[in-house]
């Protein structure tokens, strides 16, 4: 929670003093928090430590690692993590992983490479939605309807964002647009305060 709010010192203290053990969610949250708040080197160092301890990353961990590479502009490192994730970690690339690489290419000014990457990987995990988003960002509104129609025909859906929090030993997951949580009404009223 501290990491999402940008309180990285508090987040790191809780992480270091807590008994996170092999809790991949805790490791991932800390790596993502560091990456999101400009501490990309620390994020990668923490990922390296996670590996040394034998903790297996999941697809969200790899998204956080690619986020660190993207935010720091580390193109070769980002490509290396993308290529090694399946072999080294047993994690299949997802649309979020491809999206990080496309964004990384665009951030370092390699828009043609980003477009080629999309075309090369469009058949994997629905990279067309990244193409759709990129088209919107570059002002190609006329392609919006055609791309969305193509995505729908292929059954490509970008999964909604989510957050997880542990309270009293129970993990609660909140998915964007989902109000089916048993305490949703109380949660939303608290947020409205």
From TrEMBL:
Matching InterPro entries, A to Z?
E2_motif, PPR_At4g14850-like_plant, PPR_rpt, TPR-like_helical_dom_sf
Cite a single GO MF annotation.
RNA binding
Q: Does the keyword Acetylation apply?
A: no
Superkingdom assignment: Eukaryota
Q: Which UniProt keywords apply?
A: Repeat
Check the record and name the PANTHER family matching this protein.
PENTATRICOPEPTIDE REPEAT SUPERFAMILY PROTEIN (PTHR47926:SF461), PENTATRICOPEPTIDE REPEAT-CONTAINING PROTEIN (PTHR47926)
Report the protein name in the record: Pentatricopeptide repeat-containing protein
Species in which this protein is naturally found: Ficus carica (Common fig)
